[in-house]
Amino acid sequence: METPIAVLGGTGAEGSGLALRLARAGLPIIIGSRDEARARATANTIRTQVGPDTIVEGTANPEAAARSRLVILTVPFAAQLPTIQSVRDRLAEGTVLVDVTVPLAAAVGGRATRTLGVWEGSAAEQAAAAVPNSVSVVAAFHHLSAQHLSDLSHPVDSDVLVCGDQREAKERVRKLVDAVPGARYVDAGPLANARIVESITALLIGINIRYKVAGSALRITGIESPP
Amino acid sequence: METPIAVLGGTGAEGSGLALRLARAGLPIIIGSRDEARARATANTIRTQVGPDTIVEGTANPEAAARSRLVILTVPFAAQLPTIQSVRDRLAEGTVLVDVTVPLAAAVGGRATRTLGVWEGSAAEQAAAAVPNSVSVVAAFHHLSAQHLSDLSHPVDSDVLVCGDQREAKERVRKLVDAVPGARYVDAGPLANARIVESITALLIGINIRYKVAGSALRITGIESPP
């Protein structure tokens, strides 16, 4: 029996956009938030957009985490560790935590076109150090524009660079990527490569500013689709 | 009067491939090398590939640098500073140095899928600290596969992410990018962004290994061509 996909921080722009696309693909979703009422409101909005049969609900982050084995974390960098700490004891063994966090300097009043240095090397590795050993962290979805995701009429045109150290956990994330038309899974190597993948987000934010667009993203050329 | 384009380290795989493509576009080229005879041999090979009227010659790095106002540096990271030091006094005021260096951990016996930390932030910023103030450093061309460049029948399918702090210098590099069919200039922001752009090379090398290809590269989606 598949558990629903929890999207922690799912009331934010990136999280709600991703949840919208996954719900549209027919996947059951639980929106998590610090504020349960806002989580329910976002769930209702998604249901309105996708259709009355959509399986989507909203609840507090810890309950959302507890009811899922595939938990997506989409919060600003400053909220990453507090959110993980608030759900840590509720993560079941074997859960995959999909970390979308980017350590933008904006977290400390700096620019969104720059990243902070993270002691562990990347936000994803920081997450891996903060969850129980029985939880696998996979980094993914950093480059999908929140604005594009939230507009169902806008096709996604981006690869999803996926980093992680457990093959099986990455394969579970591949299914999420495949559920979003226009997104393509690319195996970007071990979790430590999130150092590079996260920083690309800052580069794309700068490109958005210079090119006056809402959602530059990227495609890897020269490869065929799998492995 | 346009000076020729010097390609320092132009006997290597990346440098000779890039020189080949620029020569094919009709740009006059000087191959530079520590070894003058090898530089001449590479120049002859390029002339054979492109045609007898090709303006390409080979000489020692310092002379190549002295005769050009647009100098491309394509050497392994361990050779970057020694090469700059060997040509530093020969760089004319107003020269643009196009740095293609990537600080791969392979430089110290580590993996080509990882980068080293560079004190200045990136290889390009290290170069900028090592050249006279009258020379502008622009970082570019990191993601074009040497193997693909060297095979004229293989179309280039990659954006070129260009970082630099002087607009005019970047515009001179745009002309080089535009001379390579299939390559597209993307303004990747200030020189400090080379930290990100260089590290993407390590990511692509890992993708080459996992996907068993010779030259993965990347395209930015969601933008129109200029600015």
Description:
Two copies of one chain form a homodimer. Helix content of chain A is about 40%, strand content about 20%. Chain A has helices at about 15-25, 35-50, 60-65, 75-85, 125-130, 145-150, 165-180, 195-210, and strands spanning about 5-10, 30-35, 55-60, 70-75, 95-100, 135-140, 160-165, 185, 215-220. The first copy, chain A, has an eight-stranded mixed β-sheet with strand order 3-2-1-4-5-6-7-8, with helices on both faces. The radius of gyration of chain A is 16 Å and the shape is globular.
Q: What attributes characterize this protein structure?
A:
homodimer, 227 residues, alpha/beta, eight-stranded mixed β-sheet, globular
- Overall shape of chain A: it is globular
Largest interface: A-B, 36 and 36 residues
Q: Which class of secondary structure composition applies to the elements of chain A? A: alpha/beta
Number of helices of chain A: 8
Q: What low-confidence regions of chain A span 5 or more consecutive residues with pLDDT below 50?
A: none
Tell me the total number of β-strands of chain A.
9
Helix content range of chain A: 25-40%
Multimer state: homodimer
Major pleated sheet of chain A: 8 strands, mixed
- Written as H for each helix and E for each strand, in order along the chain, the element string of chain A is EHEHEHEHEHEHEHEHE
Radius of gyration of chain A: 16 Å
What is the strand content of chain A?
Answer: 15-25%
Strand order of the largest sheet of chain A: 3-2-1-4-5-6-7-8
Task: Report the span from N to C terminus of chain A.
Answer: 26 Å
Please, what is the average pLDDT of chain A?
96
